[in-house]
Amino acid sequence: MQTSNDIGLRIWAGFNGTDYNEQIDWLINEIGVGGFVLFRRNIESLKQLKHLTSEIKKHYIDRHGRTPFIAVDQEGGTVRRLRFLGTPSAYDMACGGEISVSAASSETAKALCTYGINVNLAPVLDRVSDVKKHFLSTRSFGGDSKKVGRFGALWISLHQKHGVQCVAKHFPGLGQASKDPHNDALQILWNSLDDMWEDIAPFVEAVRAGVWGMMVSHACYPMLDPYYPALMSTVVCRDWLRERLGFQGLIISDDLDMKAITEHVPIDEVARRTLLAGVDCLLICNSTDRAAEIYEVLKDFVSQDKEACRRHGESITRIEKAMRCIDVKSH
Prior knowledge:
There is one protein chain. This protein has one domain (4-330): TIM Barrel, CATH 3.20.20. It has ten helices and ten strands. It has helices at 22-31, 46-64, 90-114, 145-161, 193-208, 234-244, 259-262, 267-277, 288-304, 306-330, and strands at residues 11-13, 35-37, 69-72, 74-76, 79-80, 119-120, 165-171, 213-216, 250-253, 282-284. The radius of gyration is 18 Å and the shape is globular. The mean pLDDT is 92.
């Protein structure tokens, strides 16, 4: 059976504070998390940010001998964890065309790399036709799937060229969502197969561009799987994303602290079903107690279930490969 000392690699955690502290130390030494997700609450200045990421890396390398994933959502516009960077929104970039997307992607990636961040949880590849009414608003490149795919692929290629890995989101698409998963459980009802493929098409382009990670959404897609949300669906993660789209990188959950999950699905079920579905990494951005609980559930599940052990081993192989990629880029 797989040993439990690599379970924590599946978890990317948020934390409180702007300096290296006991909470971060506990996540490194007790849980052995694979990554950290930074928010505005963690960032006071660029000098402070660089010191924070350097300290995290130093302690992590001392303990585990490799570089952790350090991620932010620096999409641009309203979603800029580094508020000092004037990254425009995806919608504004799209209005400026490829020149605007290229400039914004390159400048953002260079800045993130400078301040010790190696993963950007962007771009948003959801197809949004009405930015005034949809909860994603200007976070999307627009409603034309070809443009969304083209601009997303360009953003990804330039980011990764400059040493920052990209996580495209939110597969298989939230363009048809009527609510925000931060607050509500969602069901995406496509009118036809053509509508479904229009939403999935930008993610196909991301795979072709060599995107490093893919974030799956919390929504349910009855046309694909009538029983489980995307992040807990074998059909969505393994059959579609892995087999049909040929994606070989990391499959990453959206934040498991969102109400779409916390108020509707027991934590032990989330842990077990995401593992079996093929999700490699779980984002837990606010609650370290929740991170610890998921860690314990996964540890027990992997030690007791042969299929879970096998799937876990596959994920760890992908995660370790991705970490080697980060190490190479860091040097």
